[in-house]
Amino acid sequence: MKKRIYFDYNSTSPLRPEAMEAMMPYLDSASGLYGNPSSVHSFGQDTRTAVEDARLKVAKLLGASTDEIVFTSCGSESDTTAIKGVAFSAQERKKGRHIITSAIEHDTVLFCCEYLNQNGFDVTFLPVDGGGLVNPDDVRKAIRPETILISIMHANNEIGTLEPIAEIGKIAREREVPFHTDAVQTVGKIPTKVDDLHVDMLSLSAHKFYGPKGVGALYIRKGTRLHPLFHGHHEKNRRAGTENVPGIVGLGVASEMASVEMAQDAKSVAALRDRLEKGIIESIPHVHLNGHPTKRIPNTTNFSFEYVEGEGCVVLLDVEGLAVSTGSACASGTTKASHVLRAIGVPPNVAQGAVRFSLGRLSTGNDVDRALKIIPDVVARLRSLSPLWADKQAGRETKITPAERFVKHPKGLS
Ligand SMILES: *Cc1c(COP(=O)(O)O)cnc(C)c1O
């Protein structure tokens, strides 16, 4: 069988061998490294040392101090802890009930905020522009005396747009509102120093940057008040549960290596992504680039192929050996257009044809070349099955609303 191509790094990334190697002794009981880190005996001390060593590595990557890092089971848990934790703490202290977020957050943040909105809190979902950007002025205007939390993602997982987090953070700080960012798509890809970003809380997930699945972290700036989701004494009372030692060790290694390799990786993956993008634009008519052409993470591109159904495209591409996604992995299986594409003003019929390509460390020029042979062919085959496409070819086109707010890709690609 031909080697399959994986362009779905925003869903998850492969575990890096260095992380696996470091994790193995904590999985293999023969090494004796299976103690509970909370135990007093030497078995416990050994794993405690490993956990604290990993904490230091994560803290370094974020420019934080170790006691500001709480290990969790995933990015979703980190997000939920930040949002519900601050909300319930504010409730207990009889503070306000107003929360500000954006319309394009990851489902975990979106659903958490919708849940709170239906349960006594009042949430403002800020709109974004055609490129997916939140306007910091909108944040400023939305803040009320009773605002207890702002949560805006660092980069969007579907379109890759990078939000002006540092600017929003300054506003939040001026108004003394705790500020959380879901940085699951940026940690390990681009710099995410918490002081540069002016954030009070930041979520990350190991499996999005070559660490293992099922482990994440939440940065909590000293002085930020929040309740735990799981009650108990671990993680300084901030997250109960015996630590996932192998996972945490893997996260530590992924963090340490990211600090070293991030800049070079970003450069090479951006070059591949741009080449893929250019090839698609040049070889396929009626395509749109969704998202912001420049303010975005280096590995992601999102295209709408008109007269094509995104889900069908993903299935056929997979048959040809190219793994991509329609956007959010969690939204797959539903035919509803993505909330992100709707929020940036992509008309429903165009949003339906959206496909996300997200590249990573193991992507090669050869992968891109092969993908550029597969994609135009699959799109042409799908179009040949579309009655709308047949009408268009016969000049009987039912006019598609011009998507004015779309960022159509400029010819010369940077
Ligand atoms: C993947 C992702 C999450 C969820 O992380 P998990 O570790 O899979 O729970 C949250 N936010 C964003 C932006 C993501 O891309």
Main attributes of the structure:
single chain, 414 residues, alpha/beta, Aspartate Aminotransferase, domain 1, Aspartate Aminotransferase, domain 2, 2 domains, 7-stranded mixed sheet, 3-stranded antiparallel sheet, 12 strands, 12% strand, disordered C terminus, binds pyridoxal-5'-phosphate
Question: How would you summarize what this structure contains?
Answer:
The protein has 414 residues and is α/β, with parallel strands linked by helices. It contains 14 helices and 12 strands.
Ions, cofactors, ligands: which are bound? pyridoxal-5'-phosphate
CATH class term of the largest domain: Alpha Beta
Beta strand count = 12
Strand order of the largest sheet: 2-8-7-6-5-3-4
Radius of gyration over all CA atoms, rounded: 22 Å
- How would you state the average pLDDT, rounded? 93
- Main beta-sheet strand count, sense and barrel state: 7 strands, mixed
Helix content: 40-55%
Outline type: globular
- The figure for the number of domains is 2
CATH topology group of the largest domain: Aspartate Aminotransferase, domain 2
Low-confidence stretches: 402-414
β content, as a range?
5-15%
Relevant CATH superfamily of the largest domain: Type I PLP-dependent aspartate aminotransferase-like (Major domain)
